[in-house]
């Protein structure tokens, strides 16, 4: 599972497919609420605030 900014969404999808050998589901963090999980403050690949959840 990765959280990524706009710029790194494609990188995260590629990495996900390499690791899990299947395409990920992608959620927009703004439109998704989690009860027992707080989104990390930073993108998986850089210091930008993340926008997408790749799972
Ligand atoms: Zn990023």
Describe this structure in words.
The structure is a single chain. By secondary structure, the protein is α+β, with helices and mostly antiparallel strands. Helices cover 22% and strands 16% of the residues. It has one domain (6-54). The chain has a three-stranded antiparallel sheet with strand order 1-3-2, with helices on one face. The termini are close together. It binds zinc ion (ZN). Zinc ion binds at residues 4-5, 7-8, 43, 45-46, 48.
- The largest sheet has its strands arranged as 1-3-2
Question: Which structural class do you get from the secondary structure elements?
Answer: alpha+beta
Which sequence of SSEs, written as H and E, runs from N to C? EHEE
Roughly what is the average pLDDT, rounded to an integer? 91
Listed once per kind, the bound small molecules are: zinc ion
**How many separate domains?**
1
Radius of gyration: 11 Å
Care to count the β-strands? 3
